[in-house]
Amino acid sequence: MNLLQKTLAIAIAATGFAVVTNVMADEKSPAEAAIDYRQGAFTMIKHHFGPMGAMVKGEMEFNAAEFAKNADAVAALSKFPANGFIAGSYEGETEAKPEIELNADDFKKKMETFQVEAAALAEVAKGGDIAAIKPQFGKVGESCKACHKEYKKD
Ligand code: HEC
């Protein structure tokens, strides 16, 4: 126990605050926290990416305003997953392959391609023209696939 934990333990003993107990039980290693972080970021990306895919495929009625909102969200969120790929986080509850560490430059390049294409999609989406949107949506989708193929376990 470090000093903080000791202080908390005393606080719990003294006050019985269940909230504090929960915080301590939730403590994760930096690697576990990083895995949670990047999976969380990708979950949010998927949440916004899915409806765009359905609209592009004609499974959902095209709504330009909704599409633009989702494209904006993916462009913003594309900046986050990179923060979660830290050394020592390629084992345990993760689908990330250890090759990410070995091919760090290539992984970084694939992440940047995703960010660039997602930003371009947000730009095109503002115009609301599905014919222009479709090919750019395809490029974003390809950037996901290109990385998953190399660096994500199925
Ligand atoms: C540069 C690499 C890269 C790019 C680009 C990328 N991903 Fe991923 N993605 C990964 C890796 C690696 C994992 C596995 C993360 C883990 O389990 O720790 C992952 C996991 C996921 C997951 C599962 C999250 C979970 O809860 O376990 C989803 C969903 C996902 N990606 C969607 C997408 C979508 C959609 C795109 C594009 C719009 C995308 N990803 C782009 C590398 C990438």
Automatic annotation (TrEMBL):
One of its GO terms (biological process) is electron transport chain. GO terms for molecular function: electron transfer activity; heme binding; iron ion binding. Binds 1 heme group per subunit. PROSITE patterns: CYTCII. The keyword Transport applies. GO terms for cellular component: periplasmic space. InterPro entries: Cyt_c/b562, Cyt_c_II, Cyt_c_prime, Cyt_c_prime_subgr. Pfam families: Cytochrom_C_2 (PF01322). It comes from the Bacteria. Residues 1-25 form the signal peptide. Heme c binds at C144, C147, H148. Keywords: Electron transport, Heme, Iron, Metal-binding, Signal, Transport. Transmembrane segments: none annotated. The keyword Nucleus does not apply. This is Cytochrome c556.
